[in-house]
Amino acid sequence: MPFLIGEAMTGGYGAADILHDCTIAVEKGEIAVIVGPNGAGKSTAMKAVFGMLKLRKGRVVLDGTDITDLSPQDRVAKGMAFVPQTQNIFTSMTVEENLEMGAFLRRDDIRTTMEQIYHLFPILRDKRRQAAGELSGGQRQQVAVGRALMTQPKLLMLDEPTAGVSPIVMDELFDRIIEVARTGISILMVEQNARQALEIADKGYVLVQGANRYTDTGEALLANPEVRKSFLGG
Amino acid sequence: MHDFLNGLVVLLNYVIIPATTYGSQLALGALGVTLVYGILRFSNFAHGDTMAFGTMVTILFTWLFQSWGISLGPLPTALLAMPIGIVVTALFLLGTDRLVYRFYRKQKAAPVILVIVSMGVMFIMNGLVRFIIGTGEQNFDDGTRVIINPFAFKDATGLDQGLALRTTQVITVVTAVVVVAALFWFLNRTRSGKSMRAFSDNEDLALLSGINPERVVTITWILVAILTTVAGVLYGLDKSFKPFTYFQLLLPIFASAVVGGLGNPLGAIGGGFLVAYSEVAVTYAFKLVLKYWLPAGLQPSGLVQLMGTDYKYAVSFAILIIVLLFKPTGLFKGKSV
């Protein structure tokens, strides 16, 4: 069984279902990427895994434990961390305070984790006394990822981490995400930049209308002519 | 030179000292309004009556202490009773939250509904205070009344005008500085304070970080109890306690919080002083000051008073309207209303 699996998830926000029998899984220390056209339910699938959406059918299992009925907060305590697409930092607080708030649930010494994050994102160390809202788009994403990593999660979930950042910053963010995965943290990510994201993905999920269309390794999906034609622009 | 000093003493007596005192009281009140707005996300109309409630409890205990013969010597006994007033008010506010606000919070009610709810709470508190202590005016100031006696000042300096500085004015400013410093230390340095700021900044992300919203709300009400009781007692010592006056204070307090930018504590302080100085300066007759300061031929024959003191609330109201029209986020980068 994979480290995390959202199995046969069916559900939506109101009466109509958005997800139909959708399955998403990540192995330990691997990167899984969800891609698909607009309105395919990518972010919804992510929210379902994190418990922000009531499932009508299906279940979510983390590290062998069924967590389907847990609230998002309880899932954070179980080792999941989530970086929302927008409003993912405390803009009026300093970078360092953002990281401190990320570690709010921890009662032990957080300085080592903070050091690791400054090591991963060196620019944050220089800006640690600055209000996070004054930073550039790419730096804000680094703060957002850093905040999520402060809980020392086993699974990091990113909702379009490269939305609105320049291509150079995007490449760098992807490099950092690979680095995080190498430390043994599983990563589940929704991405608009499908090609680049699949290049770093161990596993890729192509969703269409809330259902799995293609599921394979990132490499195989990139090589698949049908996927290329329909979703990667040739 | 002699004339200049005389004019300065008059200005200190009637404008600077009273406005600074009043500004400190408004700043404390506005801080409470801004905290509730930032954390609970509604404008609390019951704020003035919460001040009245806290002051009432303090007065009742002051009388009790006086009947026991306990006093603070030169300082007003009310300072001794104030901590009790704070505790009772905190319990009262937490009870109100449990009974009323929590229900609407669970339903994720819109801010405008909470505003109306707070008006209901205001009427209840209003009635409760009047029922317990009456509608009349209460004076509860004791201890030494003055620090600088105007007659002694005149004798000592040889000026025509005597400087007057009352104990309550000094106590007001000193207490306000201490309370504000403690509040900022709490918000910026402690774990609980930072979690409050985080909650105010981005509620969803605060929940994702494991911050417990009910705990944040509880701390907020306790801080509100401290701020309202201190502000109310200081105002009552400086002037006098009357439930209706406290209800009326709502307007300048809201004007202060909005001018500074709702949700921004620094703004609340700046706003408090801005409103206080405007109110005092606009309603003061500058004739006497100008008599000393202007050369003989230019001295005004009129009062040089822009507005009668009866209109002092119009000043707050005008400031409120102007800020809302031209700079709804306030002068210090707050949230727009």
Question: What would you say about this model in short?
Answer:
The complex is a heterodimer of chains A (234) and B (337). With 234 residues, chain A is α/β, with parallel strands linked by helices.
Describe this structure in words.
The complex is a heterodimer of chains A (about 230) and B (about 325). With about 230 residues, chain A is α/β, with parallel strands linked by helices. In chain A, β4 and β5 (about 65) form a beta hairpin. The model of chain A has no long low-confidence stretch (mean pLDDT about 95). In chain A, the strands form two sheets. A six-stranded mixed sheet of chain A has the order 6-7-8-3-9-10, sandwiched between helices. Chain A has two domains: about 1-80 and about 155-235, Rossmann fold (3-Layer(aba) Sandwich); about 85-150, no CATH class. Chain A starts with a strand and ends with a helix. Chain A has helices at about 40-50, 70-75, 95-100, 110-120, 120-125, 135-150, 165-180, 195-200, 220-225, 225-230, and strands spanning about 5-10, 20-25, 30-35, 55-60, 65, 80-85, 155-160, 185-190, 205-210, 210-215. Chain B is mostly helical. Chain B has a single domain (about 1-325), classed as ABC transporter involved in vitamin B12 uptake, BtuC, CATH 1.10.3470. Chain B is built from 14 helices and two strands. Chain B has helices spanning about 1-40, 45-65, 80-105, 110-135, 150-155, 165-190, 190-200, 205-210, 215-240, 245-250, 250-260, 265-285, 285-295, 310-325, and strands at about 145-150, 165. Chain B has a two-stranded antiparallel sheet with strand order 1-2. In chain B, α12 packs across α14 (about 310-325). The N and C termini of chain B lie far apart (about 50 Å). The mean pLDDT of chain B is about 95. The interface of A and B includes residues 84, 93, 97, 100 and 102 of A.
